[in-house]
Write the structure tokens for this entry.
Amino acid sequence: MKASLIVPVYNLAAGNKVRFCLEALLAQDLPEPYEIIAVDDCSPDDSFQILKEFEARFPGKLMALQNEKHAMQGAAKNLGLSHAKGEWIGFIDGDDWVSQDYLSALISLGEAEEADIVGCDLQLTHEQSFALGQQIKSNDPSQAGELDHAKYASLILDSGSLCTKLYRRHIIFDYDNRFPEGIFYEDNAISNSWFLRAKRFSYLPRPLYYYYQHNTSTVHTITKERCENRMEAARLMLSEAERFGYFEEYKAELEASFATLFYVNTLFSYVRGVKHPEAGFVKAMGEEMLRTFPEFRRNPYYLKRTNEEERRLIDMQLASTGSFLLYDRLLQTWRSFRKRFLT
């Protein structure tokens, strides 16, 4: 089996979402055999029935599985991995899709360059079509090739989307770590470990992956629970680095990645995305950040990747959560007023 594509599915029957995804995957022009493993996470809608329908129509090519209980995408991916037979392994979100030559183009490049991981770019789309939209670079050409310390460091800081990658089987199956279950942002927890196992990374700067933008998408919903999930994924990212022995060598990069994932992005998305942010939650977030990396504000990557206003607000939050919340609320109110009435 040349490739296995694992598709986690949850509540995607409406709007033709999962059907469009599966049809695109079944239309791949790869000449060698490949398989699609679609895993339903106990959806309350008809998603699993749709998967079973496709399995009946395409026996031997599409397998429909279902988690024993709702445990989010990590559990669905892990179940899919337990059945995967492919030389190359990929993950496609059940509401996204890929171009017809996604597999053939990536595998051809990866095998020609003897890569362990191969990736492409993605594009944002608001409609179910193959029309070209806004292209997003998943990686940079400077990260590709034979991997050394500098490239590993760069990939820890900017690994790009896991969904735009294909992985040689040994990168995953020669080790016993799998996706964390029961949380969102599961990719962030393990993607560094997968890259640190690779000897060579190939990159095709073409947007072969279509990232569907719709109101029910995970990234468009901000809740305290999802912020907590992102924080837990950051903790697990550090645990992975400790477990596989690369924490000290890449401490600066991991510190910056943790600061971004656990604290900076979570802080601002939480206080600006939920209706009534809890001061205790914000305070605890800052306190844990300082316990984990007391000097993170001196990290050169942090200084480069945050702007002056963000750094000022972060300093304020670490000094006084109440002052930070009041100031940021006033700041956002003023900006909303200015945008509405003065521009």
